[in-house]
Amino acid sequence: MFGVIDRFEGDFAVIELDDGKMINVKRNILPKEMKEGYVLNMDEQITFDYEETQRRKAEIEKMMEDLFES
What we know:
Radius of gyration: 13 Å
Strand order of the largest sheet: 3-2-1-4-5
CATH class: Mainly Beta
Number of strands: 5
Low-confidence stretches: none
Largest sheet: 5 strands, antiparallel
Number of helices: 1
Mean pLDDT: 95
């Protein structure tokens, strides 16, 4: 299961899961230097998924490019 960091609120990260559910996770159990928009693998442990983050970032950039070209 994947989750995307939506925002930080104090000591918590608000994470949107693939099914659209929002959860709060203590910030101190996340990998260091996490930022909004980063994709996390939420299976056995919470780990940063660099490849999925880059893939989604490229997909969003392409959609924005297509939108502004129209």
